[in-house]
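Lab notebook, design round three. We kept the backbone fixed and only want residue identities now. Task for the bench partner: fill in a sequence for the structure below.
Input structure tokens:
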């Protein structure tokens, strides 16, 4: 309806622009007045209808705005005014052709269709631009997915670029060997797992592992995020999945990597949303169908990554689809040292930099965290005007990553003194209580939300916690509040974060019963 209204208005506008813009309908009295005044130059009559033209523009009758030269009027049948004699006396030309030329049928048709043609052209231009941008909910067809070919890509990634997760590399070595020598496995009747699921916390190197597998095997590598398949229009995601797998089959052996597969791989029937829910399920069903349709000779391996393996649909994890689930955990101390060595290959290090010591004080950090640490240290070296990255840069970078950037907060001397007592209480109890983590650094320079920080990290990685260790952490966290109570007799809001930490430890205690 809106489209029809726009077409009608445009057609009416064009007809008015190209039509009888100066021709108006006047009364016969007005015509007789202009005739007697000698203003009529020519007329054309058809029946009682008279068309005419004035010698000069005259004001529109009845106080109308503007002027007119062409006019139309109706001669009453009872008029007895000897019109022919008057016309002859005034020298009016009586013509056999209409004064106002009427357009032909073809011209009227073209003018009527012009607005519609303009709208169609505009729609085609907009559709082409949307197609070039790949937007509008997938209404325009996207280009087929293109692989990253490690054989020709200058940024080829291999297992030499992956460190700290040797057990995972051993699991994926079979995939690489199958892609390199598939005929050996076929002779033995062995079938390679059709899918490998990499599950682990963010930043542990799942995407890097997938690229390393493709680089080691020297096969095309198709990479896609699961969110790219989800669109507002139902069925678009499934068609993109079909295109991705079809392109991979053409270049087999190949690897398809789907990042964040939990976006579309959630257990079906568990969603409460509307709209995109059906599209997500159709996309998941298409992935299940494509993976189940593989044959062992196709040589296409699907590698997926997620940090929420518990929400995946059971149909994804059954044999024949993602046969193998590989857990990618944060690296241990030796792994962190190897990762730091990789990420500092292009960084000029000072002679006194000990990566072993940096790895010892960074427990729980993932590969992405360590890469960020090395980059922050290099940035600080440039900021300090140094030619090499030294231990101080690594120490300051670690504080910045773990505690936040230092704030230029001007504190009154009494507040700084109270903060110093507070942090000293943390440090004393942390140093004196048996089993507590060693204190690495104490500062009253405000960082993040804290007015001061006491940094304590273990000497070795811990995978289980004793009751004594948890008690030491609680006692150390309450040391600042105890120091304020002993020295000042009151407790300030500076102990808020300490109480939050203590509450978190106590509630997570296996014997807490909560």
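Proposed sequence:
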């Amino acid at each position: 309806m809106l489209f029809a209204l726009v077409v009608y208005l445009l057609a009416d506008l064009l007809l008015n622009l190209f039509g009888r813009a100066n021709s108006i309908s006047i009364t016969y009295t007005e015509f007789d007045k202009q005739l007697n005044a000698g203003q009529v130059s020519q007329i054309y009559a058809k029946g009682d209808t008279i068309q005419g033209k004035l010698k000069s523009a005259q004001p529109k009758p009845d106080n109308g705005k503007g002027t007119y030269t062409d006019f139309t009027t109706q001669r009453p049948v009872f008029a007895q005014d000897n019109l022919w004699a008057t016309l002859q006396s005034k020298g009016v030309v009586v013509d056999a052709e209409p004064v106002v030329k009427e357009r032909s049928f073809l011209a009227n048709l073209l003018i009527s269709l012009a607005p519609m043609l303009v709208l169609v052209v505009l729609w085609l231009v907009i559709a082409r631009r949307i197609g070039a941008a790949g937007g509008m909910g997938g209404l325009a067809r996207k280009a087929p997915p293109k692989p990253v070919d490690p054989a020709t890509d200058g940024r080829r990634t291999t297992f030499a670029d992956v460190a700290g997760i040797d057990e995972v590399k051993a699991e994926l070595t079979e995939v690489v060997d199958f892609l390199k020598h598939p005929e050996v496995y076929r002779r033995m009747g062995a079938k390679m797992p059709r899918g490998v699921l990499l599950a682990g916390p963010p930043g542990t190197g799942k995407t890097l592992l997938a690229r390393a597998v493709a680089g080691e095997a020297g096969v095309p590598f198709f990479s896609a995020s699961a969110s790219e398949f989800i669109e507002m229009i139902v069925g678009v995601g499934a068609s993109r999945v079909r295109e991705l797998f079809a392109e991979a089959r053409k270049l087999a052996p190949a690897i398809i990597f789907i990042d964040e597969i939990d976006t579309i791989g959630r257990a079906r029937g568990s969603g409460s949303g509307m709209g995109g829910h059906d599209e997500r399920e159709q996309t998941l069903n298409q992935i299940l169908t494509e993976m189940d349709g593989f044959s062992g000779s196709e040589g296409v391996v699907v590698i997926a990554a997620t940090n929420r393996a518990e929400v995946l649909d059971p149909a994804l994890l059954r044999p024949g689809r993602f046969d193998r689930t590989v857990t990618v955990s944060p690296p241990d101390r030796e792994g962190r040292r190897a990762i730091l060595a990789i990420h500092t290959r292009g960084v000029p290090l000072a002679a006194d930099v000990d990566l072993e010591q940096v790895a010892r004080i960074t427990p729980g950090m993932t590969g992405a965290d360590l890469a960020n640490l090395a980059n922050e240290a290099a940035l600080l070296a440039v900021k300090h005007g140094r030619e090499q990255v030294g231990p101080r840069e690594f120490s300051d970078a670690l504080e910045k990553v773990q505690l936040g950037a230092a704030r230029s907060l001007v504190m009154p001397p009494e507040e700084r003194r109270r903060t110093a007592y507070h942090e000293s209480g943390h440090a004393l109890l942390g140093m004196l209580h048996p089993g507590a983590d060693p204190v690495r650094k104490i500062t009253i320079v405000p960082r993040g939300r804290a007015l001061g920080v006491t940094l304590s990290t273990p000497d070795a990685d811990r995978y289980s916690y004793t009751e004594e260790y948890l008690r030491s952490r609680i006692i150390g966290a309450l040391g600042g509040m105890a120091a304020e109570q002993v020295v000042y007799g009151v407790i300030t809001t500076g102990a808020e974060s300490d109480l939050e930490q203590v509450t978190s430890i106590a509630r997570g205690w296996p014997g807490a019963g909560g």
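Keep this in mind before ordering anything: Residues 135-141, 272-276 have pLDDT under 50 and may be disordered.
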